[in-house]
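Before surveying the methods themselves, let us examine one representative protein, pairing a chain with its fold in token form.
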Amino acid sequence: MTSLVPLLALGALASPFKRDVRASAALPDLALTAGQVRVDHGQLAAYARICGFPCTDPLPLTYPHVLGFPLALRVMTRRAFPLPLTGLVHTGISITRHRSLRPDDRLELTVYADELRPHRRGTEVTMVTEARLAGALAWASHSTYLARHRTAGNSDAPRRPSSGPDALPAVVSWDLPGNLGRRYGVTSGDLNPIHLHPLTARPFGFPRAIAHGMWTFARCAARLDDADAIHVRADFRAPVLLPATVTYAAAGDAFQVRGQDGRIHLTGTRSARRPGSPPG
């Protein structure tokens, strides 16, 4: 995998200068594309192991996100991108897979920033990643990332329902080691300091390193039926402080991850793509 350290370092250096964070700021009119993207089979195997996918063919549902992450970093480290890269928190993702992808497929990946909006804890951005095969859209995701900062209590900022979701029936418990963030970061390229060590997480308000939202989501996705056409959405409701023991729970098309104290960290839903909906 191409080293992402230079981009991460650039983002860290530029972050202190991005202080005027506003939802009304302009996003860069920029879409970055990479063609004929090859899958590194060793990296893919390591990713499948750490996330619990039983095989690598077809590609795990969440893996194109990893392939597109270098492009996303290039967008988010541009001077015109208004949010600081360092400390961004992944708050949610939706993925639509229009067809199964194989490790030997040569994909065209496109990534762009789509929307800024106020959040009760700061400002949120949507990053879009699209994967095409032979010109046809095969996979797409919409990820939201939060830059946390003081707000004026904007009434338009989204708030979580105070009652919270109902607890689903428990399926399995997972013991997450303290070095999970470092291990997944090396595999995925996402070396955000909030995931790596307590000392690097504390400046951003976390007492310990937190698990990657994409690891938590991928671990859930590994348990879903591998339908050819699928739409999955997850909301990262609360960070998972490492180390931890969490429970995966599911009923029907809904799933969630919760802590030993009952706190819900992730909620998600799965559905088949609507019949007749165009692939792009």
Remarks:
- The helical segments are 5-14, 41-51, 63-76, 180-188, 198-201, 213-221.
- Residues 154-162 have pLDDT under 50 and may be disordered.
- The longest strand covers residues 107-119.
- The longest helix spans residues 63-76.
